[in-house]
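Need tokens for this chain, all 291 residues.
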Amino acid sequence: MDEPIRYRGKTFTTREIEQIREVIDTHPDKSRRFISQELCRRWGWTQPNGILKDMVCRGLLKQLETLGLVDLPPRKQNPPNPLAKRSKPERIEVDQSPLYGAIAAIKPIEFLQVRRTPLEKLYNSLIEHYHYLGYARLVGEQIKYVAFAHGRPVACVGWCSAPRHIGCRDRHIGWTQEQRRKNISLMTTNTRFLILPWVRIPNLASHLLGLCARRICRDWEQLYNHEIVFLETFVDPARGFSGTCYKAANWTYLGQTTGRGKDDRSHKVNRSLKFVFGYPLRSDFRQALYG
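Here are the structure tokens for all 291 residues:
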């Protein structure tokens, strides 16, 4: 191998390739899953909650096999890809009678974290049928909230693992590339925000963002055993959005995306430019992200 291999921000030299070959040769009858997990244990590849980065390692192995650098054992089975024929979330009927008035009239709002609970199906259904982007199966850590008023769902808010690199965000934080690789798990992105279309309550959106900010770190720790210190979101002005509710909730405008996406190779704009907003959960968030 003449040059090191780059994968997911890591560099793999001849030394690491030889380690992979050694594991394969030592366990010729083992599965690809066993090999990837054994490599994760040797390299200390774990998520913040201690789970092995098995799927990341398997992606590396597949790339190395494609390059002809390793010979993986034959697949023991070919399980169906759940994403290839994804069925839409089942529609769950809810009360759609119009809800108007001041926010004080619907308080107290019951704001529930529904990830890995029976109510997650309700969240998925509402997002699929009433959010303009619809439901998407996310990869990585994620949290979902449903807000109820007088027993009726009125809104959904979803969060997921933050993208590895956003230029304006990274300049705002001021961290190095290594600090970003190490601590990106301390951030989360607001991936879905839905006020149900028959709900017309002024200031409800910014109120819900405030509820999120006060509890999301605790909820994240309960699910994934680590804190988060910074929230971010993307607002699409091409759809007429300007981020009004984020501004009202004291989020900071950080800049714009480049419009090229995370896997860009052409360095050409291929999607709409989005506004980026951020919100720190701690005054010393930079110290946490630099650590």
